[in-house]
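Record type: monomer structure entry
Structure origin: computed from sequence
Chain ID: A
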Amino acid sequence: MHTLNIKGKLFDLSEPRIMGILNVTPDSFFAGSRTEHEEEIEKRLHQIVEEGAEMIDVGAYSSRPGADDVTPEEEMARLRRGLKVVEKICPELPVSVDTFRADVARMAVEEGGADIVNDIAGGEMDKAMFRTVAKLRCPYILMHMQGTPDTMQLAPHYENVSREVTVWLAERIDRLHQMGCCDIIADPGFGFGKTLEHNYELLNHLEDLKELNVPLLVGVSRKSMVYKLLGGSPAEALNGTTVLHTISLLKGAHILRVHDVKAAVEAKRIVMACQKNS
C-alpha cells in the first residue's frame, strides 16, 4: 500500500485518486480547461470539487508543441493567482503545481501553499529541480519525456518504449532517494515524446511500472492518443479518455490526472466494484 506524506499528514493511495486539472493559462491544448481570471478559476474549482476530485493539479505553462514560451515571472504570477483561489475554495485538498522550473516550484510550495511538485521534464529542463524538491521535502511527480515540449514529437524513437521508460524512471528514482526524497510518484508521460504506437504499447505494459515500487500517475485525458486514433479533436475525446482511464485503473494506476472529474470518478467506482467482487 502506498501513502504520501503531505505536510506531515499521510495521504492514502490504497484506492485510486482522481486529480482534477486547473489550467491558469490562455493556451492549453484543451480549450475547455483554460481559465485566466479569478471568476473563471473559481467556477472551474467548484466544478472540480463538486464532481468528486480528491487532488488538484495547477498549471500555468502550456506544454503542448508550439505553445508560446512563458517567462518564469509570468508563470509565477499566474500560479499565485490560481493558488490563492484554490486556498479559498478547497484548502483541504492536496494541490500539485505543474512546472519544470525549480524556482517556480519553490515559490509555489513556500509562498503559494502547494503540496506536490509535478515536473513534466523529470528534472531534465532544470538541473536544480532535484535539489529543490529534496530541500522542500514535498512529494514529487517524476514524469518521463523524450526531448523538450518543442522537440518531443518531431521524431520519437525507442527500441522498447516500456523498458526504456521504466529504466529511465528507475534511475532517477534512485537518485532522488539518495538525495533524501521519500515521496516520489512516477508518470510514464503519455504523449510526451511518443508516437501513437508508443503510447499504446506503453499502456499495454503499464503494469510493468509496478516494479518501481512507487505510486503511478497516469495522464491521458483528452490527449492526441485518443483523437488521433478515433478522429475528431480534444473536445470530442471524452469517451475515449474514459476507456483509457478504465484500462489504466485495471493495470494499477494510483492517480488519474483528468479534465473531466465526474467521468473519471464513475470509472473508478465501476472498476473498484468489479475488483471487490473478483
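Annotation 1: The longest strand covers residues 17-23.
Annotation 2: The longest helix spans residues 72-89.
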